[in-house]
């Protein structure tokens, strides 16, 4: 099997061999220049793959920086996009979010993966609600999933709405405006004569 050192030894004029200093510089501007030099290199994919597989923690390899490679140390599949950026292979929720992070419209493959991801999360939440005996949340999860609600969730929603209506009615019942003394005006109107008042004389 041909290794990367073998390939570099057989390929003349590689920028990293002519002047390796920028590829291992502490200066961000020099590393950025090294990344640009990698773009025209015929060994770029092999070099990047080698650095990712070996988890090399320093330097510019195949147009990738150490910081970029750290996101792929868990073995996630990668690719170079049209702009030469190290990216996840399409077809996952993370790749879908990567599209959004770059201000791109997600591709069909990533959109399908996102749709499946969202549905799986909703179904897991629905299973949790069912384990509690059903709920109003479960009722609306059924609707989000495009399916009729189960009996337990319908009944739970009915009970939740009835309880909310009772709380609303109770609040309205305590909503009479109060005077400064704390007695409602309606209560004052219906309380009769004030204490200590003398009855009116009745003419004979």
From TrEMBL:
InterPro entries assigned: 4FE4S_WBL, Whib
Function: Acts as a transcriptional regulator. Probably redox-responsive. The apo- but not holo-form probably binds DNA.
Domain 4Fe-4S Wbl-type: 15-71
Keyword Magnesium among record annotations: no
The keyword Transmembrane helix is annotated on this UniProt entry: no
Annotated Gene Ontology cellular component terms: cytoplasm
PTM characteristics: Upon Fe-S cluster removal intramolecular disulfide bonds are formed. The Fe-S cluster can be nitrosylated by nitric oxide (NO).
Lineage: Bacteria, Bacillati, Actinomycetota, Actinomycetes, Kitasatosporales
Residues that coordinate or bind [4Fe-4S] cluster: 16, 38, 41, 47
Primary localisation category: cytoplasm
Cofactor(s) listed: [4Fe-4S] cluster
Disordered as annotated region, ranges: 164-204
Family the UniProt entry places it in: Belongs to the WhiB family.
GO biological process: cell redox homeostasis; negative regulation of DNA-templated transcription
Keywords: 4Fe-4S, Cytoplasm, Disulfide bond, DNA-binding, Iron, Iron-sulfur, Metal-binding, Transcription, Transcription regulation
Matching HAMAP family: WhiB
Domain of life: Bacteria
Spans traversing the lipid bilayer: none
Protein's name according to its UniProt entry: Transcriptional regulator WhiB
Cofactor note: Binds 1 [4Fe-4S] cluster per subunit. Following nitrosylation of the [4Fe-4S] cluster binds 1 [4Fe-8(NO)] cluster per subunit.
